[in-house]
## 1
Amino acid sequence: MKRTYTSRLTPGSKALVMGWVSHSRDLGGLKFFLLRDREGHVQVTAKKGSVPDSVLKTVESLSREDCISVAGTVKEAKQAPGGIEIIPESIEILSKSNTPLPIDIEGKIESGLDKRLDNRFLDLRNPKHSAIFRIRSHVFKACVDFFHSEEFININTPKITVAGVESGAELFPIVYFNREAFLSQSPQIYKQMMVAAGFEKVYEIAPVFRAEKSHTTRHLTEFTGIDFEMGFIRDMNDVMDVNERLIRHIVKHVKENCGRELETMGVSLRVPKKIPRLSLEEARTLLFKKGKKIPEGEDPDPEAEKLLGSMVKEKYGEELVFVYHYPWEKRPFYHMRPDGNPKVTESFDLIWNGVEIATGAQREHRYDVLKRQAKEKGIDLDSMKDYAAIFRYGCPPHGGTGLGLDRIVECMLGLKNIREAILLPRDPERLTP
Ligand code: ATP
Ligand code: MG
């Protein structure tokens, strides 16, 4: 017989199901347990006299999380969860589980996040927790589908690098034979390089490493970056447009394909209509009215981002907002500056319910301007030989964005901690499992 998922059983038929033993009850002559597989649960009912004695004996010997296979007849049963049950004809124990379990899997006793993460593969047997990753899988698919529908070309760039264009403070050094190398902190250089190579529109979804000592609910030391870069843009609004369509596509796709998971988690999603775009100046004015001051030349802090998020929700009915024209002092040398306003950059952040999920910008593509900008920040462009070369043989105006997949999942589902949104988090303390 072919194996069936518990969600696809029809009363009156024979079925073979496989999974794990969850709750069980023994009323003497009547024994039940729930079998859980990745699609749900089904009750298995063994009544003395109606099932073989050997089957009854096996049921008696079962403990929680034993991995088993059950063959039997599917019947309607009003009192059973889901309205059906299986009357077993044979039960095979594929692998016994030790007792006691290190954590309570189906959440009767809540374990702390640390303990859950220490026992992550067991924690993920809880349908509420695995739902996050089924949704995350769809977010990934939605991104890939979106980029292809917009004619972006997928690239894979090295994660072992010599240095990036960022400050360097967050680089993880590695021993590379007899030299020092670093784990990639961003594919920035390479995605710009591939625009200059003539691909025009490229994207990459890959690990990003940041030696970030921060202990927050939104920082990891290894996360999944969604990066894109596009050539021949008019200005940064073209880049924001792509982000807006991307987010709309992700939410719509998850809404359409993850109904059951969203229900399990008690989350309802709303596809954004129009994501408002505020200059940092406008955001500053709004925040000031609410008593929150962001000093001139400074970025909004996390508290200001949160407050801005709730104000945008109130004013525009949207959970997302673009804030643009970040101060030159706070942005890297390669961000373009608007004509006649060297204090700001043609850059933006995308904020979802008060948390940054993306930073994007138009890049400076004019070699001489870029060289001057680098110098202002105390950097010699020509010392970054491979990066400087990109701008010397015909480089189109271009821009792009770095988004965080883990942050998107965290913000979209309203999770309290980014560690819930990643299978096996890495942070300054955690290097296992
Ligand atoms: P933050 O200000 O939140 O520390 P950032 O501005 O340093 O982030 P960027 O360099 O703009 O980060 O990275 C692009 C995107 O990658 C961010 O908007 C975020 O979604 C994600 N991201 C950055 N750092 C982390 C991190 N340490 N853990 C998880 N995601 C991250
Ligand atoms: Mg940023």
## 2
Amino acid sequence: MKPLRHILTLSDLEVEELKSILKTASKLKADYKQGKHEKLLDGKVLGMIFEKMSLRTRVSFEAGIFQLGGTAMLLEDKHIGLGSRESVKDVSRVLSSMVDCVVFRAKRHEVVEEFASYSSVPVINALTDKSHPCQALADVLTIKEEFGSLENIKIAWIGDSNNVSASLVEIAAMLGLHIVISSPEGYRFSQEEIATLTQQRQPGFELEFIDNPKDAVSDAHVVYTDVWVSMGEEAEKQERLERFASYQVNAELMKNARKDAIFLHCLPARRGLEVTDDVIDSPQSRVVAEAENRMHAQKGLLVWLLQD
Ligand code: CP
Ligand code: NVA
């Protein structure tokens, strides 16, 4: 029996484990592109709980496990009533008896933690209000493919200090990357959050906070943004749109990055707000490759977690 592991944040992995997952992901992607579909997870079943909307996460897990010989079932919250029809504890214990792994997109990170504490099968965080570890795996895979290596790479994050940027800071620390965060006042990580995210920092890791987006993207290999209003923050919409207005990634801003810089966005994007069409549709944009890499990255993670 494999020891039970949950991936609720990237800090649940050791640095070497993270590197090994990324390596497996790249290999599985290369195999897949050559038409090789080894059934490494034959007969394995994923239960996928989604309390929020999703395109990429759901499809990439479902397609990924299928390619590996397994299957997935979608458990929408409106059907299972997690915490309302039935306690988190009971849902977790029952699912553990029938599936090999649970993929969980939750409104509150604490609920995934509670769920995992009762689960006897691995639980993977498929996005919470605090983190999005699977996204960061795909992001570094995309960056490595583009630049051939992750050494001396500078990432500029423009926008909200949110779930996606939290996992990006975490993976940057673990892989020794340089990351610059440019967020408006009131939307920045606390010292405590930064300390938690950078616990496993490796040589080469550098974290800067630069308020002016133009200065933040200077010399950056990667310019990355996300929505200004994440799922669950709709009540703050008006205030956020005003506060983030000068943090738009547009063609003018991209001119300040390296000539060979790429643009990333976890998607879905609000075109015309955090990013303009002329950037997201430009030759510098890698957003579709990044989305595709969700599937390859998660296949690496699933094989690492579940292969007998
Ligand atoms: N990037 C991402 O997680 O997309 P979905 O919300 O569509 O799954
Ligand atoms: N920050 C966004 C990411 C969506 C993939 C959200 O939480 O809505």
## 3
Amino acid sequence: MNNPAKEEARKRIESLTETINHHNRLYYQEDEPEISDFDFDRLLEELVKLENAFPEFKKEDSPTQRIGGTITKTFETATHSVKMLSLGNTYSKEELIAFDERVAKGLGHRNYDYFCELKFDGVAISLVYEKGRLIRAVTRGDGYKGDVVTENVRTIRNIPLTIKDSNLPEYFEVRGEVFLPRREFDKINKERKERNEALLANPRNAASGTLKMQDSGVVAKRRLNCNFYQLIGDDLPINHHHEAVTMMEKWGLNISTAYKKVKDIHATLDYIEYWREKRHQLPVDTDGVVIKVNNYYHQEELGFTAKIPRWAIAFKYQAEKAKTKLQSITYQVGRTGAITPVANLSPVSLAGTTVKRASLHNANEIERLDLHEGDMVWVEKGGEIIPKITAVIKELRNGAEKPISFLKNCPECGTKLERNKGEAKHFCPNAESCPPQVLGRMEHFVSKRAMDIDSLGTERLRALIHQGYIRNPADIYDLPQFKDELMGLEISDEQYVKSSLGYLFVSLKKALYAITESITLKEIEQFLADHESMESIPKIQYFRDLIPKFNKRVEENTASVEKFLKELTFFEFDQIEDYVPVAVVIAVMGDLEKDDIENIKSASIHKSTVHDLITNGKLEFSDTLLGKIKKLKGNTFQEGVIFNMMEGIRNSISQPFPRVLFALGIRNIGENTAVLLAEHFKNMNALQTAADESLLEINGIGNTAVNSIKAYFSKKENLDTLNRLKNHGLNFELDKSDIQWISKKLEGKKILASGKLNHFNRDEIIEFIASHGGIYSKTVSKSLDFIIEGEEMGPSKKEKALKLGIQLISEEEFLQSFTNINNEKNR
Ligand code: IVH
């Protein structure tokens, strides 16, 4: 090669490939990443660029082949060469011994051994390799045939795209379990939480959802992983499962190292015990052990029942439970006002984590369990993240337990709670000004598809609501007036909770930091993390004992923590692990007298932050104390943040009318309906004054929507808000360019969809049709062009359609014709 630039590129491509493969190995095999995702992506990006510039150096199995980007609208199905079976389950030692007896009887001797593996809780997958190349990946489906998800599976970085080995079988299949490592799952949920999206229930569902995503580029970002456990092929040179495992390992397929070949069922039981607790340290969720007869001839002899092999069985670990004490019940107020009781528990170790809270759903649940404060209870963790209380251990009651009467007033705003007939949940009726409910509406108002003010995220909104700056959407546009006041405003973060009576509690971390001097937040965090499973009071006592070790202002700090402990036991509060009453913390900081403490205590009811307590609590604090209290605050608004918020607010003023209409959050008026209304009425005034009949004329608008519109415009507060929004310059009129069609492929077509669709929910299909120029109709009438027939279409609708001779097409056909139209257009 005589072109030096080219030679350089070749070398760089080689070295990048090596580096990326090395980091992939560290990440997947060793679970010890050395570089951040960001740095990793940068390496990958550089490789993509170089490969694009010098395609001749691009290898078939380059790590860039896993970036994804393919869009699959519908997954093809493929038939499995050998049915993907399930396994019989056992839950006890006795059942396992009975299994062993059946094996011995079936073989007529005891000269066999077992191979034990963990049972990974993910999604079963089958990969087919031909001439060493991964050619197909198929989900389990119904066992006979599943979905072809090759493009998505190719993005899993430790699945070899090509395998090289002398004597590699021409054609073979490997099966395994695709999973989302817990760390990835937690990361995704953390991000979803920040974006206010619904949380994924558990890693298994997340993995299964990810595998079926349509955009492999998104799949690639999710970092799925796979453990293999089965090799299938003709004439493989092996007679034992353990050889298959070794062979797969040699080919670079990921095998969990937790396997063991054992000599008999007793050793199997030891294996089960060994992994009972240890398995929680693995990156993947496991729910049991799979025991397989090792020898293939033995397997063949034992054969199958109709559904399951006789040579293998799954031992499932019982849903683990732990005994602990119910300390108190606090209540969370949701964005719709629904109240959810939360059990505060003494910390207890369960399935590898320390549990301190459990969800209780509603008052019926408390009643059903006959829960008393102070009860010893059983908590269990099923497949879900949040543990639940399954029973009270009544034998352990000593008479000191207190019956629980469900909360009467909202802990956030003090309004009397209500419960509708036939509904399980209590709710706070103060929709107007109860902070979490206001937050729900504001989040909608600023959301991307509404006013799109992304500088007003949840935490900032919460802060502004809590400190009285925002109650309704129009208040957002008044914020610029208060720009200077916002400096130093506290962002509430997760450092606060409210007790059942509404007292403000702050995290123990902040409290210890505030009452001591010179001990850093980091040191406190470390201490708390190291002693996570201790109850609060012993933990604080232990902290006090360790103060000499920190070696900073030992005497003062010890005295402070001592006083803190005294006050905590003196005052009666709900006990909430890791949180303490703000009033007590301030009392310690200010060395206050009993009366002062009582005052702070009552002032702290329904306050949202320390800043809120200081500014609105009508309390008088010395400057020294105020200075100290600063340490207790969460993050505060600073200049940059305020600037960004103001800019976002200003920019949002130009959002088009349909978005403004959607942003108002009128019940039952989704994005698509807002577009229909805006298009039809052209301006807010016409909509406001529209008669029911003219509303009903619009396809896609029914009585429910009409009632909601009427209800909205009949409220004086809403009219005031609208007035103010208008004065702030928001668009109350349609500009012709506002409605943007994706295409005109369905122009003038009147379409109805009936039954369950696989690719759209109801709103989505309406929007899809509208965005391509079509008209969605709700009723079967002669004027329809066609009906998309989903699963379980209503029989009467179908009959009517057939009678009227309207064409029925399946969802697949609809999408197909769409792609055809698409292709024709593109040609
Ligand atoms: S062997 C014929 N080994 O469990 C036996 N399966 O209930 C084939 N699974 O569909 C399965 N970990 O999805 C086997 N180490 C393991 C497994 C495992 C998880 C899943 C697999 C299978 C299901 C059977």
